[in-house]
Amino acid sequence: MSIFEYNGSAVVAMVGKNCFAIASDRRLGVQLQTVATDFQRVFKIHGKLYIGLSGLASDAQTLYQRLVFKHKLYQLREERDMKPETFASLVSSMLYEKRFGPYFCQPIIAGLGQDDEPFICTMDCIGAKELAKDFVVSGTASESLYGACESMYKPNMEPEELFETISQALLSSVDRDCLSGWGGYVLIVTPTEVQERVLKGRMD
Question: In this structure, how many other beta carbons lie within 10 angstroms of the beta carbon of residue 159?
Fold first, then answer.
């Protein structure tokens, strides 16, 4: 078993019309044994920028704490929040400098940039970025997430339709992966508000 599959995870981000959604499952496991059913994988950097961390849970929490520290330093020095593109470059360089003993995480970054243009990207554990205009996925359920997102996604969705699409994609995908599941956690971010919703899924 790969170290990335040790805790199980499913994270997905999707772009809508001047908005984005980022969602994750809620299971924390040790291989096939479930430890917790309310585990957080999507973290807030600031009001319009979020990061989802799939992979080894302890590394995800450590990496998030270091990212919060770096972002607070940036806010103090620059007196403004970081743009999503800048933050993606920061995460990428942080991961690459640890390439010989990497954090076992695959981050997904989602944010609203200039003119509230949605930005999403993902990267591997040593920081190789992959930008996308529609959706990005990571985690043990990524194969089934790709299939579900490709069949359900359409451009320029309004927030409510985007929520429905990403929720159905997430729930149908984790049902096909025994290492992730136990419901889901969805964030819909628009220029004016952030909606947090918890999904109930199969509890087996």
Answer: 18
